[in-house]
Amino acid sequence: MKVLDFNGKECTGCLSCQLACSFYWLKLYNPEKAVLRVRINGLDEPAMRYCRHCEEPACVEACGFDAMRFIDGLVTIDKEKCIGCGLCAESCPYDAIFLVNDIAMKCNQCEGLFNCAQKCSTGALSIIEKNERGEG
């Protein structure tokens, strides 16, 4: 299974990934509405908040409304069932779930399109096999 991988040493903080992400989800260019976020702390190398699609996702366990599911190796959100309580976001060890318009949202890899990685001109975002990351 293919997943997103981030290399902070290659990231320039241009936010092209966030713009591509917000456009995919909401058809607007607003990095604050993206479901992955680059974080720049002073002179430290950038970090990224994005879903790792954990093998045993804490967010799925935390959701009491059956809105979060682990299907075919991906953590997904059923927006019809989500009430925006934020319990999934609080439980995520990667701080990768965001409440947008009172609905939980997170990376679903653009359903296999990986728009963020396609727009990343530095190679900071790449697509790898899940077991290459050492998580599964």
- Global morphology: globular
Give the helix proportion (percent range). 10-25%
Please provide the count of β strands.
Answer: 8
Secondary-structure element pattern, one letter each: EHEEHEEHEEHE
Distance between the termini: 10 Å
The value of Rg in angstroms is 14 Å
Strand order of the largest sheet: 1-8
Strand content of the residues, in percent? 15-25%
Instruction: Tell me the CATH topology.
Output: Alpha-Beta Plaits
Average pLDDT over all residues: 92
Biggest beta-sheet profile: 2 strands, antiparallel
Structural class: alpha+beta
Number of domains: 1
Number of helices: 4
Oligomeric state as shown = single chain
Q: Determine and state the CATH class.
A: Alpha Beta
Describe, in plain words, how this protein is organized in 3D.
The protein has a single domain, classed as Alpha-Beta Plaits (2-Layer Sandwich), CATH 3.30.70.20. Helix content is 19%, strand content 22%. It has 4 helices and 8 strands. The strands form 4 sheets. The chain has a two-stranded antiparallel sheet with strand order 1-8. Strands 2-3 form a two-stranded antiparallel ribbon. The mean pLDDT is 92.
